[in-house]
Design goal:
Layout (H helix, E strand, L loop, with lengths): L3 H7 L13 H7 L2 H10 L3 E6 L2 E6 L2 H8 L4 E2 L6 H6 L11 H12 L4 H22 L4 E3 H17 L8 H14 L5 H25 L10 H7 L10 H31 L11 H14 L5 E6 L3 E3 L2 E3 L4 E5 H5 L15 H4 L24 H18 E4 L7 E2 L6 E2 L4 E7 L1
Parallel strand pairs: 2-8
Antiparallel strand pairs: 1-2, 3-5, 4-12, 5-8, 6-7, 9-12, 10-11
Helix pairs in contact: 7-8, 7-16, 8-9, 8-12, 9-10, 9-12, 10-11, 10-12, 11-12, 12-13, 12-16, 13-16
The protein binds protoporphyrin IX containing FE (HEM).
Length: 425
């Protein structure tokens, strides 16, 4: 017998459906533009397509971000490809928790972002830039991307209370960089990332074990100490492998900020109207960092799985449905941003940002949603780095391919941004 509920749901409109039987190849070809092309084509904020043979709903805009980040409607469990999950957040991590377990674990991450801790990171990053610039003076050319990864790897290990010997620096930098680089790929790059991850995990587990056994004594306010002794809701410390995963969830994404720093260097190069004195103005430095994070491509989208059945804008979204919030399309939504394709830090003088229109690192409230806890740290690293590049060193940018390779997820400047004739000022 057909029930009333059946008729109610069967008569609901369905979102526009992408023409291809499976859109995976189109997605890999179009990457960051995949969503935008279809949102525009169908004149909608929601469409359906198949990715890797699974039905997915693509969403964009501030309304969609609110839906995604408010009210526990989407879990991250089984919401992103295993190949990505394994190289980024990984099993057992804060991102894989729901409800009160998530909130409790998230408080650990937020407790690391105090004003004092941010100030400490500013100082460490600045010092690392200073010694790197001195080293670079002797080099014929410098590939900035790898070098900034190393600067951030050194700084974050010191910040987090993790010992890093000089002979380990290159290997650790390569491992963190490789995990990020492989996260959005399949095949060889992903497999390389997975091998590097296994090696790093072994190292991080040993660190946690050593801290617990008092063989290492980082100070009490550091990430390493807090993670090692953090108690979950059951009153027990985290299993050593989960604590290691969470420590890596601090170290690896901090190294990932190198991508934004290099995009910032590219912006300094391509928009010469930004003058050296501008960064003395803290407001401008902040606006510049925000615009880099809004404008340049990083994570194209983030996946979630509906935890209940509900209706959004006429459309029924069923429990278990896979959905992807298009972060890039939201940061470039012409209804939210005037001329979104222009790089213009001063747009933030006129425009307020909310947890739902500006989403390069997720949205919503930090304590209760999956929004990135490292956002303020990212901002601070960006500001110190941009100021250093503009005011504390001089360099030339030789002819090279400065286009952005969007076939890689996350994207990167093709040449990795080469500079020469570096002088520390
Ligand atoms: C390159 C800069 C960064 C980008 C683009 C980025 C991006 C993101 C995004 C989009 C999310 C939301 C995931 C979701 O909704 O499920 C997220 C979550 C997260 N990020 Fe970041 N992030 C960055 C830097 C950082 C830093 C510096 C840290 C730590 C120091 C960090 C740690 C985390 C953690 C632990 C989560 C999971 C939070 C949760 O599930 O509640 N990220 N990040």
């Amino acid at each position: 017998m057909l029930t009333e509920a059946f008729f109610r749901s069967s008569t609901r409109p369905t979102p526009p459906r992408d023409a291809s039987i499976d859109s995976t190849l189109d997605f890999l070809r179009e990457t960051y533009s995949f969503g935008i092309n279809r949102f525009e084509k169908y004149g909608t904020d929601i469409f359906e397509a198949r990715l890797m043979l699974s039905k997915a709903l693509f969403l964009r805009g501030d309304g969609a971000a609110r839906l995604f980040y408010e009210g526990d409607r989407f879990t991250r469990v089984r919401a992103n490809p295993q190949t990505t999950l394994r190289l980024l957040q990984d099993k057992g991590s804060v991102q894989q928790q729901n409800g009160s377990a998530h909130r409790h674990r998230k408080a650990l991450f937020m407790s690391l972002m105090t004003p004092e801790a941010l100030e400490k990171m500013r100082k460490l990053v600045n010092e690392e830039w200073r010694s790197a610039a001195k080293r670079w003076e002797k080099r014929r050319k410098v590939v900035l991307f790898g070098e900034v990864e190393e600067i951030l790897c050194r700084a974050v290990c010191l910040w987090a209370g993790v010992p890093l010997f000089e002979n380990e620096v290159k290997a650790r930098t390569r491992e963190f960089g490789g995990m990020i680089d492989g996260a959005g790929s399949f095949g060889i790059r992903n497999a390389r990332g997975a091998i590097l991850r296994t090696r790093t995990e072994r190292w991080a587990r040993q660190l946690i074990a050593d801290i617990r056994l008092n063989r290492l004594s980082p100070s009490r306010e550091t990430a390493a100490y807090k993670i090692a002794f953090f108690q979950d809701l059951d009153g027990k410390v985290l299993p050593v492998e989960v604590a290691a995963v969470e420590l890596l969830n601090i170290l690896r994404p901090t190294v990932a900020v190198a991508r934004f720093v290099v995009f910032g260097a590219l912006a300094l190069h391509q928009y010469p109207q930004v003058s050296a004195g501008d960064f003395a103005d803290a407001g401008f430095a902040q606006r510049f960092a925000l615009e880099v994070r809004r404008y340049y491509p990083f994570f194209p989208m983030i996946g979630g799985r509906a935890t209940e059945t509900f209706v959004w804008r006429e459309f029924e979204i069923k429990k278990g449905q896979w959905a992807l919030l298009d972060l890039y399309a939201t940061n470039h939504d012409p209804r939210l941003w005037t001329k979104p394709g222009e790089f213009r830090p001063d747009r933030f003088l006129e425009q307020e940002i909310s947890g739902f229109n500006f989403v390069p690192q997720g949205g919503g409230a930090y304590a209760t949603s999956h929004r990135c806890p490292g956002e303020s740290l990212t901002d601070e690293i960006m500001k110190v780095s941009m100021r250093f590049l503009r005011e504390e060193m001089s360099y030339e940018v030789p002819k090279q391919d400065l286009s952005i390779d969007i076939s890689r997820l996350p994207a990167v400047v093709k040449s990795r941004f080469v500079i020469k004739r570096v002088r520390a000022l």
